[in-house]
Write a structure and sequence with these properties.
Helix content is 77%, strand content 0%. By secondary structure, it is mainly α. The protein is elongated, with a radius of gyration of 24 Å.
Length: 305
């Protein structure tokens, strides 16, 4: 009996060793139920966003124009009903459709801003960590200046200087985040660049770009990916914050922060106008944070069993 148990243990150990890093991380991730729930909800949000795009293409923006943009003052501040599930806003627009279409805009800006910041900051961090010396000092001192300025204050300053548009909003949300991802990438490269496999590549005549992007980056990708997932929620919240202040997405575009900007005036008389977009914002930020926490735990070698 004991010999069988020993054999099973050895087989299981061999199986675990044969698994790739991704497979081990996925097994660990599935054990975190809240993280899995977060991933499922994120998938639903993405499907909603893609669905609104497809509907706009098929109907040639007819649904968008009729329910999201068109005003109907006879339904002004109408409460939730069978006809209007979430009720109507101060201009009689269907709040359910505005929240759905707002999902697309909030996710797009939040994701795009983080992707831009990750690419820019990651490249700068890779270069600084790999070459060191004067290059490292010059890049990281600029990053220190960016980190010294509060995130929202810098974003507000950029939008105020460039003007309110989706492109300028992306720039305003991306630039303050570049320093964070540059430091993470730099730290990961410093850990990897003196290892034996890098020295072997250099000895075989591999160029710096090949070593950086083919060998070092995949091994340094885990901490960057974890920070990306955690940063998406903050980015979506920042989009809503700037729109709430009136310097983000402009009316009549449906975006959760922009909806909340006008909804605050009617909170006493028509609470539903602020409850539903606020709930959508809270849930979205929360599920991204749950997913990011689960991913961080799954990729931590100390937690793998």
């Amino acid at each position: 009996m004991s010999s069988k148990g020993k054999i099973n243990t050895e087989v299981n150990t061999d199986e675990v060793k044969s698994l790739s890093l991704f497979q081990q991380s996925w097994i660990q991730f599935k054990r975190n139920r809240m993280a899995v729930v977060g991933l499922i909800v994120i998938g639903i949000l993405i499907l909603i966003s893609l669905g609104t795009i497809i509907i706009d293409i098929v109907t040639k923006n007819a649904i968008y124009d009729q329910y999201v943009v068109a005003q109907n003052l006879t339904q002004r501040l109408a409460k939730p009903s069978a006809e209007h599930i979430f009720g109507c806003d101060e201009l009689g627009r269907d709040l359910f459709f505005r929240v759905l279409w707002g999902t697309r805009l909030s996710l797009f800006i939040g994701l795009a801003a983080i992707i831009i910041a990750t690419v820019a900051g990651g490249i700068l961090g890779l270069i600084a960590g790999y070459y060191g010396g004067v290059v490292d000092t010059a890049i990281m001192r600029v990053m220190d200046v960016l980190l010294a300025i509060p995130y929202m204050l810098l974003a507000m300053a950029i939008v105020s200087a460039l003007g309110t548009s989706t492109r300028n909003l992306l720039i305003a949300l991306s630039v303050p985040n570049i320093a964070k991802y540059a430091r993470i990438a730099r730290a990961a490269v410093l850990t990897e660049k003196d290892k034996e496999y890098v020295e072997a590549m250099r000895a075989n005549g591999a160029g710096d770009l090949l070593i950086l992007f083919k060998y070092i980056l995949p091994n340094a990708f885990a901490p960057i990916l974890v920070q990306v997932t955690l940063g998406i929620g903050d980015s979506i919240l920042a989009v809503a914050g700037l729109s709430f202040l009136g310097i983000g997405v402009q009316p009549p575009s449906a975006e959760w922060g922009a909806i909340l900007t006008t909804a605050r005036t009617y909170m006493r008389d028509a609470m539903h106008v602020s409850v539903f977009p606020g709930a959508a914002l809270i849930i979205t930020v929360m599920v991204f944070n749950l997913f990011g926490d689960g991913l961080r735990d799954a990729m931590d070698p100390k937690l793998k069993r």
